[in-house]
Amino acid sequence: MRLPARSLRIAVLSSVSVLLTGCFASSGTGADTGADGKRIRVAMMNPPRSGLSPLSDDAFKLSRWSTAETLVNLDADGDARPSLATSWRQSGRTWSFTLRDSVTFHDGSALTSQAVVNALTEAATASPKPRILDGVDLDVKASGKHTVTVTTATEDPLLPQRLSSPQLSILSAAAYRGKTVDPVGTGTGAFELTKVNGTSSAALDRFDGYWGTKAKAPGIDVTFVPDGTARAAALRSGEADIVEAVPVSQAALLDQELITEVPMPRTNTLYLNTTKSPFEDAGLRAAAREAIDAEAIVEGVYEGRADVARGLLGPALPWAADLRTEPARAKAGDPDGATVTIGTFTDRAELPEVAQTLQQQLQKAGFKVELEVREYANIESDALAGEFDAFILSRATVLDSGDPVAYLYSDFGSQGSFNISQLADPAVDKALAEAGAKEAGPERRTAVMRAEAAVLATDAAIPMLHERVVQGDAAGVVGVEHDPRERLLVTSATYVK
């Protein structure tokens, strides 16, 4: 007898949960229960790629476990707030940071200006550099026991935001040995990383010498579970307390009170080639825009677990909607059977299905549509070279600085390095330059939205939806973070009842 799809999914979840039993047993030094409470069991999607080096994307794991910290944090609006640095001021190309006093690394050494100089210099001279420092030259010097100056080649109004990147975490001198960076026992956060078992698991214990609020939980036990069905099963069976990135296909099968949908700063966009027929014609770009039913894509492909896009910047940026203005656009022309080839990639499971839906919608409007779907590594160069009439991309809209200007410039500036639309529009370039020159804060955000409007006026990009990530939290979990930027997860306030 053939099981219905939903029944089959439940059967798979049940069988996987049996296999997972024991995977989340405590591996740290703290007790599982008792006066100190329970250790927090976390199932994460991606295993470490670079031995948990903070100079790689593994840095975001260290940040989400509250073990490695930066000089600066970001608030919900993307503005800089104190962390290991309590204050800062700018003088031309130089910024001066005052460090928090009485901070101790997990290895017992003190946070000093020299320790910060060492950590930031290691990052600035790494090969490859952390991506937040692409095109940025830093000269870091100690100007006092608790004062550090950072000088850039050109004035950089976003330097504090850059220093909030987890890839610029401050570790003790013991972490930097030869060509490797070892975060075990060298952070400043509420939890000390005590053990890493390759790509399978990691353990952290509460650090009682933490400068901030003492952690409520005695420790964290992390297991890396790349398979989405297995992660969902771990939540369903009670094997994990916190589960990262539950697949949309599994979310409906779980107790809905245990999952939270977090809006991501990521937009699924159809890029139209403005230098190649037929989309060099603004009228036909407008016709494509009017043909697209984004709500049908959200409901059909994402099962309602995404947000229909009103612009390039979505609800993960809480200020964007209120500052958005409707751009003046071209009038739609008649496709009259124009043939277009849409490219996309298989690495994100939803995109091929999005492409098929778009194919049907555009054909209904009068276009003839061909699809070309490959792995991302085999299609990126052709997309950047303008080989396709259109390209579907799921794109992060704020990078490590928490600011969208870098994304807008990269994708839509005439000199942008990721300009799939091949757009070269003076009004867009002017708006981007004005946004990039503003200091962080309300004026910059207003300028950013003017730049978004300038891009949307060209119809070079048609934003369709903003993605969400589904996070699973067991019923007894308290104080867990749901962070759109994926920098926070377990903090001092997190514990299991």
Structure description:
- 26% of the residues lie in helices and 24% in strands.
- With 497 residues, it is an alpha+beta fold.
- The longest helix is centred in the C-terminal third of the chain and has 17 residues, at 442-458.
- Strands 1, 10, 11, 12, 13, 14, 15, 16, 17, 18 and 19 form an 11-stranded mixed sheet that branches.
- Strand 10 and strand 11 form a beta hairpin.
- The two termini are 43 Å apart.
- It contains 14 helices and 21 strands.
- Helix 12 (405-412) runs antiparallel to helix 13 (426-437).
- It is globular and about 70 Å long.
- The protein folds into 3 domains: 5-65 and 189-241 and 474-496, 3-Layer(aba) Sandwich (D-Maltodextrin-Binding Protein, domain 2), CATH 3.40.190.10; 72-177, Alpha-Beta Complex (Dipeptide-binding Protein, domain 1), CATH 3.90.76.10; 263-468, Dipeptide-binding Protein, Domain 3 (Dipeptide-binding Protein, domain 3, Roll), CATH 3.10.105.10.
- Residues 1-19 and 29-35 have low confidence and may be disordered.
- Residues 81-417 form the Solute-binding protein family domain.
- Pfam families: SBP_bac_5 (PF00496).
- This is ABC transporter substrate-binding protein.
- It comes from Streptomyces peucetius.
- InterPro entries: Peptide/Ni-bd (IPR030678), SBP_5 (IPR039424), SBP_5_dom (IPR000914).
